[in-house]
Amino acid sequence: MNVLETDIPGVLVIEPDLHGDDRGWFMETWQERRYAEAGIRGPFVQDNMAHSRHGILRGLHLQHPHAQGKLVQVVLGEVFDVAVDVRRGSPHFGKWVGVILSGEDHRQLWVPPGFAHGYLVTSNEAVFSYKCTEYYHPETDLSIRWDDPEIGIDWPIVGHPSLSEKDASALLLKDVPPDRLPEYTP
Ligand SMILES: Cc1cn([C@H]2C[C@H](O)[C@@H](COP(=O)(O)OP(=O)(O)O[C@H]3O[C@@H](C)C(=O)[C@@H](O)[C@H]3O)O2)c(=O)[nH]c1=O
After folding, report:
1. What's the CATH code of the domain at 11?
2. End-to-end CA distance of the chain
3. CB 3.0–4.6 Å: which of 48, 87, 150, 158 could bond 184 by disulfide?
4. Do the domain assignments include residue 34?
5. Is 71 inside any structural domain?
6. CA-based nearest residue to 158, from 111, 185, 120, 109
7. Mutation test of ligand 1: which of 63, 79, 101, 136 has the most ligand atoms closer than 8 Å to its C-beta?
8. Residues lining ligand 1, Cβ inside 6 A
9. How many domains does the chain have?
């Protein structure tokens, strides 16, 4: 597999090896030793899958405490996927990385613990699948505004995406109480 660095250290794009034959193709989507060597360390304790329609935006989400590292990919369709560094004291605080992930390119994004994560569906529909290093703790779940001007994500959308109620009433990063954000540890 190929491991591509991004503008934020620790956020990685993975291009799995695809083994094609006349039946179709096969790929390993996670393998403990190889992914750990690439810097993607579990243990992973939960797998999630979500279906969304075109124009749906989920995010920006994080948990603190109980920070989740997320290894994400798209099974069907296409999304614009974003990781934002919201670790207090990080030299990259507020910086974002955005990548297109699709069921055609099979790419994965590694969103390390301490990052906020979100995605916009750019195809008619999308099935999104991911592994998490922590269990879901709804009481520690936090939503940050998708259009926070301080973060300035360049979403590939004209107009307004469709949001959940929770995400529609999300906080700007500057209004999040400091104790609701993780701390950067070099
Ligand atoms: C995230 C999650 C939700 N749920 C339930 C709660 C709720 O009834 C329903 C939908 O929850 P949400 O609206 O939070 O789902 P969603 O907006 O898809 O939340 C996800 O967004 C992306 C961007 C992430 O990064 C994920 O970590 C997660 O926060 O599913 C679980 O049972 N387990 C889970 O792990």
Report:
1. 2.60.120.10
2. 27
3. 87
4. yes
5. yes
6. 120
7. 136
8. 48, 50, 58-59, 61, 70, 117-119, 136, 164, 166
9. 1
